[in-house]
Amino acid sequence: MQIETKPKFYTFRNNSSYNEQFTWASNIHSKSEMVDRICPEYGVRERYPSGAFDVSVEGGNQYPDILGCGTYPLLIVSQNVVNDWKRAGITSFHSYPVGISEVDSIGLQDIHYPAYFRIEIDGRCKIDLEGSGLRVIRHSLECHYLVTEPSVASGFKMVLDSWDGSPIFRDDNLYPNVYFCTELVLQLARENKHTNFRFETMEGPFDNFSIGINYM
Description:
The chain is mainly beta. The protein has helices spanning about 80-85, 185-190, and strands spanning about 10-15, 25-30, 35-40, 45-50, 55-60, 65, 75-80, 95-105, 115-120, 135-140, 145-150, 170, 175-180, 195-200.
């Protein structure tokens, strides 16, 4: 009898808080139309580039494969990451070029920066808020504004059968800026030494006082 193994899921993002040697994006300079809207229900403003943009970077003495972004939580990765994902058959995303217009770091003055891309994930799932231990206080479908009790999840559970099978995916309704992946993405980061990634198991418990999974 063949035993089916349950796939392992992770959250991923930059780990700049624990990797001060890597520079991070301090400002965004849009090269595409800006999304600029205010939620009529809660007054929350969203303002970010719809596509390509440049960034100013500061600090550090190395360029990472996943770039921290202080202005807005956009997913920015290097050309190497995009190439490695595509070679592995990961296609559930679209990308826009990200240039570097200003470098505010003495340690990076003579270092050529890699090509970067802003990633928008097309893979989908639905988060089970109740199953994740969260109670909804406020939620706007228009601007994704979400207030829960407790305010921060200690882990995420998906609605049964809501995952579309993509190696990288998200719930674009409840948590559009929280990124999930299968073990394939972690393995690629390990094999190709993708720097500055932070992985944690999707169901938690999350630990912001640790560096996450030591995938290297």
